[in-house]
């Protein structure tokens, strides 16, 4: 897809981290960007900085997501690229030792279901609502392409660590959406792909730099090459190329400096 000035893009989780860098990359390429997030202050600030719009959207709520897309389309027209970075989850081992009870405690089904809603179901929700809008738009090129949807998985989808039973399995589910959804949408000219980032220097990880310098150094050293955490701009560079390259479809990309996560 040739990115034309004024084309619309939607980025969920665009107020910080990978989504923030990607929103800027899309804007720098000439796109009108709508940021979906629940962090109003950071979202408004970044939207203003890149000449986009901010929409308070809770990815766990169907009506909120539908309203966000409606508002973004009213402001910018039909989005041609949707990047879904936002998520919500919990953490825990399938069975953990409860010291007070002196017995094993099971990770609750409710906690697992919350993560499934915040990662897997939310990915389907955002992608399918965006696809419905794209399907009713005119093609943008001779291939009949109408849009591109990019989901964010994780290397945990393949290398899930101890304590990541929710995160790892649900991110694997995100990858599992890609091929069948791309096939569902092929007749409408809508592509679907995912990216599996490794360890990136997002605000959450950067906080460790001051709190625990030895752990920070260990994390950087764990990456085969380059010996550092990924930069959000490197993630943004990949998603921009996925959007631009019409022949990239139904693919799951690892972006990880060749890291393979150990059990813990």
From TrEMBL:
What keywords does the record list, in alphabetical order?
Oxidoreductase
Q: Does the keyword Oxidoreductase apply?
A: yes
Q: Pfam families attached here?
A: adh_short_C2
InterPro entries on file = NAD(P)-bd_dom_sf, Sc_DH/Rdtase_CS, SDR_fam
**A single MF term (Gene Ontology):** oxidoreductase activity
> Where does the record locate the signal sequence feature?
none
Q: Which SUPFAM superfamilies match?
A: NAD(P)-binding Rossmann-fold domains
Keyword check for Oxidoreductase:
yes
Q: What PANTHER family does the annotation carry?
A: 17-BETA-HYDROXYSTEROID DEHYDROGENASE 14-RELATED (PTHR43658:SF8), SHORT-CHAIN DEHYDROGENASE/REDUCTASE (PTHR43658)
- Which protein are we looking at? NAD(P)-dependent dehydrogenase, short-chain alcohol dehydrogenase family
What is the organism of origin for this protein? Erythrobacter sanguineus
Its taxonomic placement starts with: Bacteria, Pseudomonadati, Pseudomonadota, Alphaproteobacteria, Sphingomonadales
């Amino acid at each position: 897809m040739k990115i034309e000035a004024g084309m619309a893009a939607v980025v969920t989780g665009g107020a910080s981290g990978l989504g923030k860098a990607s929103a800027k990359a899309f804007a720098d390429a000439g796109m009108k960007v709508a940021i979906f997030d629940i962090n109003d202050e950071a979202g408004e600030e970044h939207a203003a900085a890149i000449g986009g719009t901010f929409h308070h959207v809770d990815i766990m709520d169907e009506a909120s997501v539908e309203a966000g897309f409606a508002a973004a389309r009213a402001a910018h027209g039909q989005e041609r690229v949707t990047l879904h970075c936002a998520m919500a989850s919990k953490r825990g081992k399938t069975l953990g030792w409860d010291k007070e009870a002196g017995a094993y405690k099971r990770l609750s089904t409710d906690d697992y279901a919350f993560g499934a809603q915040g990662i897997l179901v939310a990915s389907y929700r955002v992608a399918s609502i965006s696809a419905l809008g794209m399907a009713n738009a005119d093609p943008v090129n001779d291939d009949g392409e109408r849009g591109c949807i990019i989901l964010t998985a994780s290397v945990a989808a393949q290398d899930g660590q101890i304590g990541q039973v929710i995160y790892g399995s649900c991110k694997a589910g995100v990858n599992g959406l890609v091929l069948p959804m791309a096939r569902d949408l092929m007749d409408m000219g809508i592509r679907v792909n995912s990216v599996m980032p490794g360890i990136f220097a997002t605000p959450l990880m950067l906080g460790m730099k001051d709190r625990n310098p030895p752990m920070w150094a260990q994390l950087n050293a764990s990456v085969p090459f380059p010996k550092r955490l990924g930069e959000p701009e490197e993630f943004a560079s990949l998603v921009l190329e996925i959007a631009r390259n019409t022949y990239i479809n139904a693919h799951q990309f690892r972006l990880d400096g060749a890291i393979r996560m150990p059990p813990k």
